[in-house]
Design brief:
370 residues, pyruvate-formate lyase- activating enzyme, Arc Repressor Mutant, subunit A, 9-stranded mixed sheet, 3-stranded antiparallel sheet, binds iron/sulfur cluster
Length: 370
């Protein structure tokens, strides 16, 4: 395997929009979880990986000694050659925690900023504020960990176009290497979902959401952050190597509660609830809840859905090399139709979404279902 994702399912507060696999950290068996996680990681044997990504939940919700214990094991058991990313909340990235990350070779931080507007941060239920963002970036700069991503969201309830302008202004001030900027998705079982259902909250849809997306893309492009994936933007040489594993449909290890991994032939899904995860690891030495063996058609579909997310698109030569069949033999008619509709282009051996196609990405992806 080239890559590994490690999940820390604890947070200090639950955000109003979040449907990730996470629990409030208070009174949770965090040390037992780390023990179970370490035991799960041992099942993979010692490996050299190109990328490791520790996400959550909030990995920085762990204490300094918990972080130390986890990272000590990870770096003794695995060798990471290229990119070692840690997700962090701005108010939790203390100098002590940052020193631990730095000591163990973490070389990239994904900072959960979401917005620079304090009122919107409150609406989102975040624990940090505007000042925390600047403080954490200062800490990062001070220790020379300058490869960080700011993770933002748009189309928030009550958000204006001026809020996006303000975020662009601060992006330009902070000059991160990478930006993820996702549209808010209203997921079931969240506070936002219930509020909208009860008519107590609205978010912009359709045209306004599209205009905001346009503003994000053109604003970042003007600041020197070309878009390279539907929601991701980076300075040259700083595209996320780890996330590219997913988009290029390459195998990766998924470890931790609710994680999923991919072997190339099979996708596997870990048990989600923290206590079940710990008990299963302790009693059965395994935490995999489900394995899904992929058919050839599943693989074709995933190659297209994932690969079309990146601006460069799907390489026709790589498709042929991976599956021993030309992409036209599987998708000839679909490709012809979507190119005619100007939703796809085929250039220099790559199939990619046009701007219009990117706006309705999910509708385009559906066309590749076999
Ligand atoms: S958005 Fe992040 S910090 Fe907020 S509850 Fe979800 S996982 Fe935790």
């Amino acid at each position: 395997m080239d890559s590994m994702y490690v999940h820390i399912p604890f947070c200090n507060r639950i955000c109003t929009y979040c449907d990730f696999n996470k629990v409030l950290i208070k009174n949770q068996p965090v040390d037992d979880y780390i023990s179970a996680l370490i035991n799960e990681l041992k099942t993979y044997g010692k490996e050299t990986l190109k990328t490791i990504y520790v996400g959550g939940g909030t990995p920085t919700a762990l204490t300094v000694s918990q972080l130390d214990r986890l990272l000590k094991f990870i770096t003794e058991h695995f060798t990471v050659t290229d990119e070692f990313t840690f997700e962090a909340n701005p108010d939790e990235l203390t100098t002590e925690k940052l020193d631990v990350l730095n000591n163990y070779g973490v070389n990239r931080i994904s900072l959960g900023v979401q917005t620079f507007n304090n009122d919107l941060l409150k609406v989102l239920g975040r624990t940090h504020n505007f000042d925390d963002i600047f403080k954490s970036v200062n800490h990062l700069e001070k220790i020379g960990l300058t490869n960080y991503s700011l993770d933002l969201m748009y189309n928030l309830p009550g958000e204006t176009f001026e809020d996006i302008d303000m975020s662009l202004k601060y992006v330009n001030e902070l000059k991160p290497k990478h930006i993820s900027w996702y549209s808010l998705i209203i997921e079931p079982h969240t506070v936002f979902y219930n509020k909208i259902k009860q008519g107590k909250m609205t978010i912009a849809g359709g045209f306004e959401e599209g205009e905001k997306y346009d503003k994000v893309i053109s604003g970042l492009d003007a600041l020197g952050y070309p878009q390279y994936e539907i929601s991701n933007f980076a300075k040259a040489e700083y595209e996320s190597m780890h996330n590219k594993t997913y988009w290029l449909n390459e195998p990766y290890i998924g470890a931790g509660a609710g994680s999923h991994g991919y072997t190339g032939d099979e996708r596997y899904y870990n048990i989600k609830p923290v206590n079940h995860y710990i008990n299963n690891m302790n009693e059965h030495g395994s935490v995999v809840k489900e394995k899904l063996l992929l058919t050839q058609n599943d693989k074709f579909e995933e190659e297209m859905f994932l690969g079309l997310r990146i601006n460069k698109g799907v390489s026709e030569a790589r498709f042929l090399e991976k599956y021993s069949v030309p992409v036209d033999a599987v998708y000839g008619d679909v490709l012809k139709r979507l190119v005619e509709k100007k939703l796809l282009t085929r250039k220099n051996g790559y199939i990619s979404l046009t701007e219009a196609g990117r706006m309705i990405g999910n509708d385009v992806f559906v066309e590749f279902l076999l």
